[in-house]
Amino acid sequence: MDAQAPEFYDAEADDKDEAWVQKMRGSHKSDALLSCPLCFTTLCIDCQQHAVYDNQFRAMFVMNCRQEAGQQLAQQQQQQQPEQQQQPGQAAAGAQQQQEGPASSQPPPSSRLNPVCCAVCETEVGLRDATDGVYIFINVFASNS
C-alpha cells in the first residue's frame, strides 16, 4: 500500500510561524498578546498591563483595530471635595443651589476618548485617547507573551 503525504500538512509550519512572530515583535517585551474576544484576531503584540485593573491594557501600536472617529466620549477629572456639615434645615436649600447652579461649574474634559473596534468583526474592544494617542484595551482576550 502506497502512503501519500497529507495534502494540507506542513511539518515546518509551526517553526515558520514562530519565526514570523519573533520578526514582527522584535525585541519588545510585552505583558500580553491581545486578541479580539469574538473572532480572536490579534490586536496588539506590545502592551502594558494596568497596575490596578488586571483586565485593562494600554498600547501605542496596534493592528486590526478601527477607531470610531464619529463617536467621542469625554472623560472628566475627578475632583476631591471635602464633605460639608449642613444643618438639618439647610439640606434642602443646598440641594436647590446645586440644581440651579450654572452648567459651567462642571470641570472641563481632561481627555477625549474614541471607541476602538476590531477591524474584522467590529466588536468594541477599548478606547483611544485622542490627546496622546494611547489605546486603552478593556474588552480583549489576553494571552501570555
Automatic annotation (TrEMBL):
Instruction: Choose one Gene Ontology CC annotation of this protein and give it.
Output: nucleus
Q: What is this protein called?
A: E2F-associated phosphoprotein
The record's annotation in Pfam families points to: Eapp_C
Point to the regions of Low complexity compositional bias: 72-104
Q: Where is this region: Disordered?
A: 72-112
